[in-house]
Amino acid sequence: MNFYLDFEAKQYGEKIISIGCVAENGNKFYSLVKPKSKSKLSKFIIELTGITDEMLSTAPDADIVFDQFLDFIAENIDDQNNNFFCYGDSDKRFLEKTIATMKVQSSINVATIVKDNLIDLSPYVGKFFGVKAVGLKKVLSYFKNEPIEQNHIAIEDAIMLKEVIFHCRVSGRPEQCPFENCIPMGGGKSKKKKQNQPHITPAKKQIKAVCNKTGKEYLFNSAKQALPLLKLNPTIEPSVICGRIGLAANSNKTYFGYTWSRVNNEELKKEV
Question: Which of 94, 194, 224, 265 has the fewest Cβ atoms within 10 angstroms?
Fold first, then answer.
């Protein structure tokens, strides 16, 4: 499952004040985030995002929001590769600054996994148009052939990113850059491979589990297939366990006494 994310943050300190995410299946997650810092929002951020100090005063903090976000991921994660996408290099920085203020370890783990696996799609889009960089608003306006407003609301920007990537996948590359004042990649006209879409989704991988006590290795075609390996708490939904296995595998993390990762093997070699 692909998850398209956007974060809005304070101008000074860059702590997250809102998170928006849309999954490939169309399901959405949005929340304001109350930063630990008591400093007020700058006028610039208020005008840019429409978020005010009053709105944040009743919002949940990052520990609560990322715990809720884990539930959203677990409900939407699938047994294929799961990816977290953003646009630009600021979102990862916002996560780093916010994680430093968090207190609940399970929530810190979720935010860290997202940060460590966050893929900036702006280079893919730039390559599609043959430019070094281009704004998301410009790209969507080009594809829709109409003016687009960008309100810097996290969920709207996440949806905008999903739409742009969809158009990149199904559209042919323009012969020339359609944007004014664009800076070409690499300088000059290089021979470009004909490619109708940027490569975004990696090939399917299997899930590998290594027992931390014995070192024994297991390979699974899906997180669901790994469930019999674990002694499940009956109060926890299997879908939640699958989601957490998937997140651990994405970052080579330990969960339930096993270290999880993803490998490129084609066939299942070991079973429970």
Answer: 194
